[in-house]
Amino acid sequence: MISPDRDERIGLIAGNGRFPIIFADNVRRLGFSVSAIAHVGETLPELESHVDRIHWLKVGQFSKALAALKGDGIRQAV
Fold first, then answer.
1. Do the Cβ atoms of 4 and 32 come closer than 8 Å?
2. CA atoms within 13 A on the CB side of 11
3. Residue at 1 is within a domain
4. I want to staple 14 with a disulfide (CB 3.0 to 4.6 A). Which of 32, 43, 48, 57 is the partner?
5. Percentage of residues of the chain with pLDDT beyond 90
6. Cβ neighbour number for residue 64 with a 10 Å cutoff
7. For residue 33, what are the domain limits?
8. Cα separations (Å) of 30 from 1, 10, 38, 40?
9. φ and ψ at 36, to 5 degrees?
């Protein structure tokens, strides 16, 4: 079972559909804060209300995604 040790944060690289929302809701319920990379035109806008932080990027902006997650103190992402 996953359990946060401290103020544990997890990164979410969100695609389309409802899975990113389901994932975010479940890990937040476990005590994690969620920082999401959302893709313009792909990720559902409603994800914003299910995560602690969100960064909207275009598909393919990998270096910007890494920088955003690093800036949020993320060490693990899915």
1. yes
2. 18
3. no
4. 43
5. 91
6. 13
7. 9-71
8. 10, 11, 22, 28
9. -110, 145
Is 33 a domain residue?
yes
Q: What are the tokens at 39? A: 């893709």
How many domains would you assign to the chain? Answer: 1
Coil/strand/helix, residue 40 = coil
Q: Measuring CA to CA, which residue among 41, 40, 50, 46 is closest to residue 12? A: 50
Q: What is the DSSP code string of 7-38?
A: S-EEEEE--SSSHHHHHHHHHHHTT-EEEEEE
From CA 16, how far away is CA 31, in angstroms rounded? Answer: 24
Question: Which pLDDT belongs to residue 5?
Answer: 58
The answer, yes or no, to whether residue 77 has pLDDT greater than 60, is: yes
pLDDT bucket at 50, cuts 50 / 70 / 90: very high
Structural domain contains residue 39: yes
> Any idea which residue has 């990720």 for tokens?
43
